[in-house]
Amino acid sequence: QKEVEQNSGPLSVPEGAIASLNCTYSDRGSQSFFWYRQYSGKSPELIMSIYSNGDKEDGRFTAQLNKASQYVSLLIRDSQPSDSATYLCAVNRVGQNFVFGPGTRLSVLP
Amino acid sequence: GAVVSQHPSRVICKSGTSVKIECRSLDFQATTMFWYRQFPKKSLMLMATSNEGSKATYEQGVEKDKFLINHASLTLSTLTVTSAHPEDSSFYICSARGLHSGNTIYFGEGSWLTVV
After folding, report:
1. What pLDDT does A1 receive?
2. Beta pairing class for A104-109 and A11-14
3. CA nearest neighbour of A2 among A85, A75, A97
4. Which candidate, A93, A90, A94, A55, places its Cα nearest to that of A75?
5. Which of A31, A32, A102 lies at the smallest CB-CB distance from B43?
6. Which pLDDT tens digit goes with each residue over A26-58?
7. A35, A48 in Cβ contact below 8 A?
8. Would you say B50 and B56 are in contact if contact means Cβ atoms under 8 Å apart?
9. In this complex, do A44 and B44 lie within 8 Å of one another by their Cβ atoms?
10. Are B112 and B58 in contact (CB under 8 A)?
11. Reduced to 3 DSSP states, what percent helix, strand and coil does chain B have, rounded to the nearest 5?
12. Do residue B103 and residue A32 have CB atoms under 8 angstroms apart?
């Protein structure tokens, strides 16, 4: 059974702080890793993808991948109230279906 | 990123009737489309995967005769909820993947279905 696990939260951080979201996966053959953001009542939107070990930065977002530990994380710097949402981690092998985690609810407090 | 459009965004139908939801990839050819449903505050649940020109592959527990999926072209997939009941009320979301999008999937805006 391929699984992706996330802490459901809620994770509460004060405005301006760094939010750290974590995800672990069971399939060692996973090749692609994605973070999606989903606002309440809306569909998920892609934030970042990462394919290689290490860090990948895009604006205030940094994705970190460690395949040996089967771990992927998302850091949000200078968190804003507008970042409050559920963050979904997704994992797949190329050409195969995505496996989504249950999501972590982030609340950024003004 | 690539654009996936879903229509209608909200629909209300009477019990026993059928309702069709459309999912279109606007700027790429979607070789694969996925249909999900999501209950409030719950995770995405994959219902089925459809490849253009082929029959959809349904996840375990999803009734293929109730949730009819058609993926007749590289830009359009439809989900028809047949003989809808109140328990079918949910948020239905499509996503698409194609050659242009690489290995990334992009989601439509979602469709809220309410069966009364």
Report:
1. 61
2. parallel
3. A97
4. A55
5. A102
6. 999 999 999 999 999 999 999 999 999 999 999
7. yes
8. yes
9. yes
10. no
11. 5, 55, 45
12. yes
Chain B residues with CB under 8 Å of A101 CB are 43
Pick from B103, B46, B39, B44: nearest CA to B79: B46
**Cβ within 8 Å of residue A10, ≥6 positions away:** A105, A106, A107
- pLDDT one digit per residue (tens) for chain B, 116 residues: 679 999 999 999 999 999 999 999 998 888 899 999 999 888 899 999 998 888 899 999 999 999 999 988 989 999 999 999 999 999 999 999 887 666 788 999 999 999 99
How many residue contacts between A and B have a Cβ separation below 8 Å? 40
d(CA B75, CA B24): 5
Q: Chain B residue closest to A50 (CA)? A: B104
